[in-house]
Every structure is written in C-alpha cells, then in structure tokens.
Amino acid sequence: MHLWTNNRIVISTIVILLGTLLMMAFGAFFWLQDAADNSGLANVTWDYGVALLWALLILIFIAFWPITDRERIVLMVLWIARIGVTLGFMLFYESYYPPLDPISYFKRGINEIAPLDCFTFSNGTSNVNGLAALHNLVIPESYHAMKLTWALLGLVAVYFFYRAACLFLGYRDIRVLYLLGLFPSILFWSSFLGKDPIVLLGIALYAFGVVGFFRHRRAGYLWPLGLGILLAAFIRMWLAFILLLPLGVFFVIGHQSVMRRILLVLLGVPAFVLAVQSFSEKFQLETTQDLVEQTDRLSQSWAFGGSGQKIEGGFNSISGMVIFLPVGMFTALFRPLPGEILNPFGLLASAENALLLGMLLWAIYKGRWRLIMSEPVIAWAVAVVIIWSAIYGFVSYQNLGSAFRFKLQVMPILLLVLVFLANRRRVAFVNNLG
Question: Could you tell me the residue range of the domain that residue 21 belongs to?
Fold first, then answer.
C-alpha cells in the first residue's frame, strides 16, 4: 500500500510537470520574443525547445537520486517550480531588464575554443565563461538549457542546506526543504545563470560540513567543509576569508575536544593565512591606507543604475569605514525596504526584506537572541551572517538591486537562524509553519 501511494505520487508529479511544460510552451511566447530581442538570440524557438527537453531529462535524473523517497518527490516538485521560474517568470524579467551577464556568459562560451584555459582560481567571470564553454560542448547551444543547468546547481545547494539543518535538528524535517526551496529570492537567484548558484553550492557544502563536524564529531565532514570553501573561493576569493573566520566561534563557546581543536588549528589557520595573503595580493594591499583606497574604489564602482546610490565623500580613513559599518551591514541584509524601489521586482524584494526584518525584531522583542550563545552552531551561523554583511555592506549600500542578489550567499543561513530565533521551541526550526 505504501509503495502504491509513493508510485501514485510520483506519477502525479510527472503528469503535473508535463502539463506545466505544455502550458509554459504555449504561454511563454508572450514574453519569449521580447526576452529574445534583449538577449540577441537568433533561433529562439529551437533554443527554448531544447530547454524544455533538458528540463524533462533533469526531472528523470532527479527521480534516481540516492535519497529518501519523500525527499526525492519534494525535489521533483521544487524542480517544477524552478522550471516555472527559469523558463517562465525569468522571461518576464529578461524582457524588463536585458540579461547582460547571463547572455554574455552564454555567448562567450560559444566562442571559446579552449575552455580549460579559462579556469583561473578566484577569477569568477573567467571561470563561469569556461564552464559555459564546457556546457556548450555537451548540450546543443541553448541559452535557456544553460540556465536550467545552473538552476540545477542551485537546487543541489538548497538540498545541502536542508541536510545541514537536519544534522542540527537530529531528524529530517521535510518542511525545511520546502521553506528553502520555495523562498522567493532563493528560488529566483539560485536559478540565475552566473556566479551565484556556484557560490551558493560552495557555501551549502561548507555549512553541511561545519554542522556535521561540530555537531556530530565526525572527521568525514571535513571533506565537504573544505570543498565548499574552495568552490566558493574559486569564484570569489574573499569568501574564503569570510567563511573561515566564523569557525573561531567553536573555540570560544561549546565543548570541543582537544583533538578537534588541534585539527581545526592545523587545517584552519594555514588556510586563513593563505586566504588573507591572496586577498592582499589580489587587491595590492600593503598598508591600511591601501585598504581604505581600494574599499572606496570598489564601493563607488557599484553606484550605477536606477537603484544606485553614492556614499557622499567616500571613505578616507579606517575610522570612517568603522562608523559606516552598521549602515552597510543593515543595507546588505534588509534593504531595499518598502518604498525604496518602486518597480515590480523592487516591490517583491522589499516585501521579503520587511518579512525578514519583522522576524528579527520579533526575536529581539521576545529575548530569543539569548539562545545564540547557548548553541555553538547557531552562534557560528550568526557569525557568518555578521562577517559577510560587514564585508559586503560597502558594496551593497551603493546598489540596492545588486544588494538583494548578493544576499543569496547567506540567505538560507539567515532565514533558518531567524526561524529558529522566532520559534518558541528550540528543538525545531519550523514548528511555527505547521
């Protein structure tokens, strides 16, 4: 009976998908041509048809993943949602905003004759160009199919964040997978062709490894931890610094064994020193004044577009940067707020930010922030969000549109922490959703 129920659910899911694909294939032509004009695609019908076939093949691929039946079914549902976003809603987005970066990656991938030569550690743009070129060698040249491949990377990232949450809880709560997989900004930006899904996958592996190692005391989790940092740094080198620094939380609180502390020092300290050294070399930092000047230059370079805003006077000193930190951190995590950007996408972003800010204020009002210091894993997660926002605040403030996209890197961690703090019971993240 149980097997028949599962099979029936799987068959129903596939039928729903086929119906969705047919409706999308019919309805997408309202936006498809406008999006194609902005993208400069020649044979858009062929391009989109290949993508529909690729979407179905990925669904079949997901059906054979070595995970539980329940998780597999949920992932199939989440994949349907990603198809709707990538091949449906994103067409409306691309008809509204020309997709400069995604279409550039696709076209450069077509023209690249030596994909492996593109790969350079921490050069995100060149690395994505190389991946796009390899993708075009495997799948016929289809921009929309390439978007689906990146959306699949985002779905895998969501699954690893879910598994990290389950390791913390001690059991698998499928509602966490639904929450992460359907949360609007995570669903959209982790399906976007570019650096973001790759970085998110790296951070997801890192989170999975951290929770597994420090919660369950198993050295095997060091592999995904290290791989995640390398993958994130492969695209954006400074993320190694951001991800390594919060691990110091486990020295300050918690009851870690001497061996684990020694292992963390032996692995973490050299990696942290290497990350700082690489960061200094990349941005040519030798003095604190170099840091101020490079921060000001990089920050001002993002003040463009309709959502751009300049910091008057820029940064002239370390003290000025420190004074700016609270404003920058708040912007990186909770802006745009309602009323700041009045186009359709700005309204959606501000509504989501208002929800997150409301959850934080509720947790503070109820005094739930005290739970942070009693649980090392939660303290680590908060440290990741704080350190990330302190670094990205200097860029995010200058461009609120980009700020919302950048936040994808820590959005799953931020969301789960806020749900945890807003909950009355510590034993579950999402009991208030049931």
Answer: 2-200
Q: What is the mean pLDDT of residues 358-371?
A: 79
356 Cβ partners below 8 Å, 6+ apart?
Answer: 333, 334, 414, 415, 418
pLDDT in tens, 54-94: 998 999 999 899 999 899 999 999 999 999 889 888 887 77
State the amino acid at position 380 in one-letter form.
W
Q: What are phi and psi for residue 40, nearest 5 degrees? A: 75, 30
Looking only at Cα atoms, what is the longest distance across the chain? Answer: 70
For residue 171, tell me if it sits in a domain: yes
Among the listed residues 158, 163, 255, 141, the one whose alpha carbon sits nearest the alpha carbon of residue 208: 163
Eight-class DSSP state of 89: I
Q: How far apart are CA 296 and CA 8, in angstroms?
A: 58
Q: Distance between CA atoms of 347 and 356, rounded to whole angstroms?
A: 14
Q: How far apart are CA 193 and CA 205, in angstroms?
A: 20
At 399, is the secondary structure helix, strand, or coil? strand
407 Cβ partners below 8 Å, 6+ apart? 185, 332, 333, 396, 414
Sign of CA pseudo-dihedral 226, 227, 232, 237: positive
Paired tokens of 4: 């028949």
Q: Total structural domains in the chain?
A: 2
How far is residue 51's CA from residue 53's CA, in Å, rounded to a whole number? 5
Domain-embedded: residue 249: no
Give mean pLDDT, residues 131-144.
89
14 membership: H or E segment, kind and range: helix 2-27
